[in-house]
Design brief:
two-stranded antiparallel ribbon, 583 residues, 67% helix, alpha+beta
Length: 583
């Protein structure tokens, strides 16, 4: 048999609460029963005995009206004096019927009412009706002769019956009042008992919690605090209910494991500190190496410019002076030398431009991408005219960045789109932007030859080419520059491989906080209807729902209207009468 001392805390609390609940339920059931009885007694006082007393008095008044009317008729002989008699009889019948409905629980009152009716009817048969008949037939003198002392005594019997009925009603009401008082007192006693049960149970619960919970937990907390202060060898012992003993055992097991882990951590920390010191040395060496390499690339690019210019210049002089004077193989060799020198110059210039990104900075400012597109349109004008290419763009946002780098970024994308065109199709390039979260997602879409999905990542590697150098000009560094500029501005760039036609290169740039707040406010004020929001530009991307920055639309519109010169971009991303082309 389990001892009470071995009971769990849950079992002890559940047992105590069960006992208290049973007691309270029993007291509540008794209170409900007493309340029902008390309500019945109050109902008897208010809705039965009270109205009965009133109706008994009215019944006496009705009988008195009859007696008075009969005597008055005997004196006057006027039939009008009998009206109270008839009204009294009608009122008497109504009162008796009403009282019979109220005395269902009082059989003695029903007998008293029947006795009153019998005596009243006997008085009418013995006195009232003879007096009325005699007065009608023989006159008032004969009628008055019948109103004797014996007739008065007979009506007094009726009055006595009504008085007895009133006394019985009063006694019944008193009994009901006593019952109400008794049940009310019992209800108060039961409520006091319930309060006493709650107080006693609460006191027992508080004492039990202090002895079984608070004290053991306080002791356990003191021991844990000693361990937390650094004494990891201090053993933890538990007291109280079995749950607390097991908790103390678990905490002590955790202490032992922590002490073991701490010893291992100390050893690991020493090893990590040594490794960190080595890594710090390597990082410093790597930083110096990168700085030296960067300086070397910059200096080498500058130092190689002059000899390369000489080689290229003298090769070109040889080509012009001795063209046709030597054999065909010599002319071919000279052409190879000229082409190689020129390609080396382009590679060095591109490498120099790549190395300058992020190193020579002018600082971030607010840049209107619409103005940037105007600059790009001017820079690529010759290539677009040559290829008969069309360049369009939607309303673009204002972002923070370096305007020269962003112009270089879009110029490289536009130039690539014009360069890698299909021979039989006029090039079309469209630039758009849409707000995605807290970033602007830009898209440069063309209808060119496209890019196979397996080469989507390779094209952003420096000096990587997908075609022979004879097929398309260039050094293969343009998209590497694009990637470096985008990442320098805190964005990312990728190729959209789901494009059905041509190439779509997308990149992200951080949006201004006011643009994000304006977009959130617009979304909250205007619920989505499922229709795309289009920009003001032309081209397919405008129909696809790429929007500009709503917070700056008015300012950009004003700038577009007041900008003069070749960078002006009126009406949907076209300049003048010429279609814009992307290089």
């Amino acid at each position: 048999m389990t001892r009470i001392g071995d009971w769990t805390l849950r079992r002890r609390v559940v047992t105590l609460l069960t006992v208290v609940a049973v007691l309270l339920i029993g007291l509540a059931a008794g209170e409900v029963a007493l309340a029902a009885k008390n309500r019945t007694h109050i109902d008897a006082i208010l809705n039965k005995t009270g109205p009965l007393r009133v109706q008994a008095q009215e019944l006496l008044n009705a009988l008195l009206d009859q007696e008075t009317a009969v005597r008055g008729y005997a004196v006057s002989g006027n039939p009008a004096d009998l009206t109270p008699y008839e009204a009294g009889r009608k009122r008497e019948q109504d009162l008796v019927s009403s009282m019979q409905r109220l005395v269902g629980d009082y059989p003695e009152l029903r007998q008293e009412i029947r006795a009153v009716e019998e005596r009243a009817e006997a008085w009418r048969q013995a006195v009232a009706l003879p007096v009325i008949t005699t007065t009608q037939q023989n006159g008032t003198t004969a009628g008055q002769a019948l109103v004797t002392d014996q007739a008065r005594e007979q009506f007094d019997d009726v009055r006595d019956a009504v008085d007895h009925l009133q006394q019985e009603i009063f006694e019944a009401r008193q009994r009901s009042a006593e019952d109400v008082l008794r049940t009310s007192n019992l209800l108060v006693v039961l409520l006091i008992a319930a309060v006493a049960v709650v107080i006693i149970a609460g006191s027992m619960l508080l004492v039990s919690l202090d002895r079984m919970v608070i004290r053991p937990l306080t002791g356990l907390a003191d021991q844990v605090r000693e361990v937390a202060e650094g004494d990891y060898q201090h053993g933890i012992a538990g007291a109280g209910p079995p749950e607390f003993v097991r908790l103390a055992e678990d905490v002590d097991a955790m202490r032992r494991k922590i002490a073991k882990d701490l010893a291992e951590v100390r050893e690991a920390r020493e090893r990590i500190e040594w490794v960190n010191s080595q890594l710090q040395k390597q990082a410093e060496e790597l930083t110096r190496s990168n700085r030296d390499l960067e300086q070397f690339a910059y200096v080498a690019s500058h130092d190689l410019q002059e000899p390369l210019r000489k080689v290229a210049s003298f090769c070109q002089l040889l080509q012009r002076r001795y063209a046709g004077q030597l054999d065909e193989r010599a002319d071919q060799y000279i052409a190879f030398a000229v082409d190689g020198a020129q390609r080396m110059q382009r590679l060095i210039n591109d490498l120099l431009a790549f190395s300058r990104i992020g190193r020579l900075t002018t600082g971030f400012t607010e840049v209107d991408m619409n103005k940037v597109m105007g600059d790009v349109a001017g820079q690529t004008e010759a290539a677009r005219q040559y290829a008969d290419a069309e360049l369009t763009w939607d309303e673009l946002p204002v972002i923070r960045g370096e305007e020269p780098l962003l112009t270089n970024l879009l110029a490289n994308l536009v130039s690539n789109s014009v360069k890698f065109r299909r021979p039989d199709v006029p090039p079309k390039v469209h630039v758009s932007a849409r707000l995605v979260g807290d970033e602007w997602e830009f898209s440069c879409q063309d209808n060119g030859i496209g890019i196979e999905p397996e080469f989507a990542d390779k094209i952003f590697v420096i000096f990587q080419r997908l075609h022979a150098k004879d097929a398309y000009p260039g050094t293969g560094i343009g998209l590497a520059i694009v990637k470096k500029i985008v990442e320098y501005h805190g964005g990312r760039v990728w190729v959209d491989t789901d494009t059905e036609e041509g190439t779509a290169i997308r990149f992200t740039l951080p949006a201004l906080p006011e643009d994000v707040e304006a977009a959130a406010a617009s979304a909250a004020d205007e619920p989505a209807t499922g229709e795309a929001v289009t920009g003001d530009g032309d081209g397919p991307a405008a129909e696809a729902g790429t929007g500009g920055a709503p917070a700056q639309a008015d300012r950009r519109a004003d700038e577009t209207e007041t900008t003069d010169g070749p960078d002006r971009v009126p009406e949907g991303g076209r300049t003048g009468d010429m279609r814009e082309t992307v290089g």
